[in-house]
Design a protein that fits this description.
The protein is of the alpha/beta class and 198 residues long. The chain is built from 4 helices and 19 strands. The strands form 4 sheets. The chain has a 7-stranded mixed beta sheet with strand order 2-5-8-13-16-18-19, with no helix packed on it. β18 (184-187) and β19 (192-196) form a beta hairpin. The chain is globular, with a radius of gyration of 18 Å.
Length: 198
């Protein structure tokens, strides 16, 4: 099978059940968390802000800003367009890729999740060991895609596998569980379309 030839990061990126205790996943976590620890001590005005950000999120455009503090799992699963602004306190769990289009605004404390766990406890943790302990939980992922000219309001939560279209406004505090089409204003928990965006 193709999956048998994949390492755990490749499985993670392809939405397959992945073992996060694998050395390559743990090294990715370590690299990310080390950079985030430095990033938390900075402002966007610090001289080395940009160099740390570019190590954290490879390929980030020079026009795009991420305001500390920021939280993510890997960094290399985040794809940002031009002129994106991500405000303070956001959490991006980028086991699968998070793709955000041009001219998109992400308000403070927005959470974007690509990771989720099996609902069955045995699938999640495996059988208990002889000493009663469990493996680290198994995880699956699904990508999140956000279009161009989007505004995500403060404290919104975007769940795995969601696509948000172009020119969308998501109201503050919304929980986005399903895809949102282009050119609408949507809000609520669960998030639903309220009206067309003029």
């Amino acid at each position: 099978m193709e999956s048998e030839r994949m390492n755990e990061i490749e499985k993670m990126r392809n939405g397959l059940l992945a073992d996060f205790t694998a050395p390559e996943v743990q090294e990715s976590f370590r690299h990310c968390k080390t950079l985030l620890a430095r990033f938390r001590t900075m402002s966007t005005y610090d001289a080395d802000y940009r160099s740390v950000l570019e190590q954290l999120i490879p390929g980030i455009p020079a026009t795009t800003v991420v305001v500390p503090p920021f939280h993510c799992d890997h960094g290399h699963g985040i794809r940002l367009g031009e002129h994106v602004y991500i405000n303070a306190g956001c959490t991006f769990l980028d086991g699968a890729c998070i793709t955000i289009g041009d001219y998109t605004l992400i308000a403070p404390n927005v959470q974007i999740y690509t990771a989720f766990h099996p609902t069955n406890a045995v699938e999640r943790f495996g059988e208990p060991k002889a000493d009663g302990s469990f493996e680290f939980c198994k995880t699956k992922t699904a990508p999140v895609i956000i279009g161009d000219n989007v505004w995500i309001g403060g404290g919104a939560i975007i769940l795995p596998g969601v696509t948000i279209g172009n020119s969308v406004v998501i109201g503050a505090g919304s929980v986005v569980t399903k895809n949102i089409p282009d050119n609408v204003i949507a809000a609520g928990s669960p998030c639903r379309v309220i009206r067309r965006n003029q």
